[in-house]
Amino acid sequence: MAVLEHGYLRGEVAGVVKKSTQAPKSVQVEPVKVNLGWKSLLLLVLLLLPQLAFGARIKDIAAFDGVRENQLIGYGLVVGLNGSGDSDQTKFPVQSLVGALERMGITVNRNDITVKNIASVMVTAQLPPFAKQGNRLDVLVSSMGDAKSLAGGTLMMAPLKGADNQVYAVAQGAVLTNSFSYGGQAASAMKNHPTAGTVPGGALIEREIPNVLASRSQLKLNLHQSDFTTASRVASAINERFQGQVATLTDPGSVQIAVPAEYRNRVVEFVANLERLEVNPDVLARVVMNERTGTIVMGENVRISTVAVSHGNLTVVIKESPKVSQPRALAQGTTTVVPRTELRVAEEKVNLSMVREGANLGEVVRALNTLGVTPRDLLGIMQAIKAAGALNAELSVM
């Protein structure tokens, strides 16, 4: 028995025994008082409390409409390669080089250029929301021709455009590939993928994207995964936090939010307070299987009705041992090949495993482990359970 008194835990522990000096007729047990400090008490309370389910922040499960990354793309040349650039079969690198030289005031004959230290590349980048002019971006450089390697090259100035054909950034700098490619006439060696690389911080932002949150009275919050229950919980959490009908549901994938009057000129502060709210998202019961890798992922909410499962492997071995039939001497026969096939069929004896109704994920795993199945065997078992109508979850095969 234990009671909480004055911030300490006083318990009675049976365990100190005193023997009588006269005769071993009886044994007396005296209580021992144990005083535990507040740290020990806190540890004990944490161990006794059930596990709490903490929710996810709204910023982790949803995003505001219009606040997203934008893709940029451009064409460029990588120079300074050690003979590993595009060959003469690729025409557009030479055309690009001639055009670049002419813009610099240098006139050359296109037929006189036979270089192998340049490569035509496609340059891509992601422009984050609210990026400011002068900020830098990482860019990805990928070969477009038949260049063998971009290692050691330098990307010349390449404008990066958005979907509206406007230039938002300009990229230039040394290309990092973390790979190599060397070879001769009879042998070659290559590590990783040398025809693609990055230019860390190689793009300089020249144009900003307009601020979509400035002076707005209505905001739209889009869930990463549409769900009626999750959307309802998000709206309830927002209304409870700001004490009013601030959020309304439009569909299971979005929540319409009216900016309160006191936050009309402080929309950024309002969004920051809103994103920190925690919501317990509702997860759809789903089993995802990848037949190529044998990977199976089952969610916590997966339930199985009462079903009996038995799985056995059937092994078939076919061995061909053809023999040659040679006729005797002076016989008027021909040499023929006689087929000989050895066939062995072995079927494993397995037990029948019962899974009761409402079994959770742990019980399902333990029941299937008793059958000794492999992940690839489990693919067929889960499909059979789903076909039998006993799997109360969505089955997704990749």
From TrEMBL:
One of its GO terms (cellular component) is outer membrane-bounded periplasmic space. Assembles around the rod to form the L-ring and probably protects the motor/basal body from shearing forces during rotation. The lineage of its organism: Bacteria, Pseudomonadati, Thermodesulfobacteriota, Desulfuromonadia, Geobacterales. The gene is flgI. The basal body constitutes a major portion of the flagellar organelle and consists of four rings (L,P,S, and M) mounted on a central rod. The keyword Signal applies. Pfam families: FlgI (PF02119). HAMAP family: FlgI. It comes from the Bacteria. GO terms for molecular function: structural molecule activity. Belongs to the FlgI family. GO terms for biological process: bacterial-type flagellum-dependent cell motility. It is found in: Bacterial flagellum basal body. This is Flagellar P-ring protein. Keywords: Bacterial flagellum, Cell projection, Cilium, Flagellum, Signal.
